[in-house]
Amino acid sequence: MSTSATGGSSAIFSGTSRFSSDFQQVLTRAVNIASLPITQLTNQVTNLQGQATALSSLGSKFSALQSAIQGLQNATGVNSLTASVADNSIAQVSLSAGASPATYTLQVTALGSYTNTLSADGLLKVSDPSTQNIASGSVTLTVNGAATTLTPQSNTLNGLVNAINSQPGLNVQASIVNVGPSGTPDYRLSIQSSKLGPVSIQLNSGSSSLLNNLATGTLASYEVDGLSTPITSDSRTITLAPGVSANLTAQSAAGVATTISVSQQTLSVSNALSTFVNAYNAATDDLNNSHGTSGDALQGQSLIVNLGNTLQQLGTFSSGASGIGSLTDLGITYNRTG
Fold this sequence. Notes:
By secondary structure, this protein is an alpha+beta fold.
């Protein structure tokens, strides 16, 4: 800074080094104060990024654990069982919940048969079932003494078949069969029982009977585990044990029984156990990263406590059921680290 006076003389003011130092400190302090919000925001972003990374890691570990639990459930449930039949022409076996390893012998003494009926001769001849019928108006179908009045939506043989089949509780199946030559068809109504055995089937239009009985059905019969007294059934699908059913497909040779085996696939159980243990320990290790003085960004979060409690409950779970009711029953043991 300079001034001019009369006569051309001038005066110059120069800052000292102390002034410069003090001024620099003031500027530095002002800059630091101004950047505090930015620094805090940067720290928050860094912390959030750390939490996101830790959460992503935990998510993958617990997702793997969830999959391992499902795999363990499958390996120890009905999916871990396999059924085999020594002579698979006699029966086919299916398994469901409640099945357990066992061996049975089965001898099919009779496959049984269904009751069959056909619309009688002398009724209206039907050459086109979409426009003609064997009777007009409502009809009464009686199965084993239980009568049901049917009113077809259309007065045709097709309509009558549909009216019968629309009521599955009648336990019969209606169809159309041609008993005449191709050139001059003679379509008849066929009604078959849906259960094996001697089922009484009648169809009436007023006082007129519309059906002839072609064959009276018989019950299926079989012997299990050498019992000499045959068991009868109105179905070819039978129950051998809880969760074990067999569909009878052929009659056994006289006095010859076939063996049915239900067994556990031990390899699948072993693999599922190994996968579960590895997934459980990996989840435990990841949770431990959030504990202690060097814990990650999730240290102290309630989520960590809740997940730890979940792992502990999983390890000590017991259904109270006999047999396999807990992980310990499967041979899994725990120590302080997992």
